[in-house]
Amino acid sequence: MITPKQITVMLAEDHAIVRQGLCALLNADGHFKMAGEARTGREAVEMAHKLRPDVILMDIAMPVLNGLEATRQILAANPAARIIILSAHSDDEYIERTTAAGVAGFLEKQTSAEILTKAIREVAKGGTYFSPAIAKRLPHDKSKPRGRDGLPMAHGARLTSRESEVLQLVAEGSANKQVAAELGISIKTVEKHRQHLMDKLNIHETAGLTRYAISAGVIESSVQLTIV
Length: 228
Prior knowledge:
By secondary structure, this protein is of the alpha/beta class. It has helices at residues 16-29, 41-51, 67-77, 92-101, 113-124, 132-135, 161-171, 176-183, 187-201, 206-215, and strands at residues 7-12, 32-38, 55-58, 83-87, 105-108, 129-130. 46% of the residues lie in helices and 12% in strands.
């Protein structure tokens, strides 16, 4: 008797208890093999490139690099990657941005184990799977200009991958020196990216960048508590 090949799954989720629960659930099923666990979007990008799993389960709100930008970078490097968003956030803006980024599925974290495993199997076969409630709300209005990463574009201009990374780190409260260290670039280059961000978005202070990052779903409102 031929044993069916296990589907390799990589999980990107910053909450340890959620990671442990999902891993236990999938391992117990017997049809899946956990290839790796990422705690940040940056780790997710690196692991996806190294491990090449059949399916990636991706949270949206993660530190260092959010799930949207991580998805964009993974798909840019490997268009064949199969990514399912598994998030507590399922408002229309999140759905629009993730579908624009090219994900193969979107599930709410409240979904059942049966739906989750069904979605992974479907996506691993090359299909797509969106939870029924989300499928009804998939965007049909293509009139709004959006970038490949799904972020709304300001006055027709889109943010580059590096600008999106700088935006998140700045919005999370990192100083230029910290951003430079995290991204492996000079402080002068960080300053240039910040200025480009402000010019493109017509925003002239850090608090404004933070507000934009929250409204665009780049970070959660709870991440930056000092904003007024």
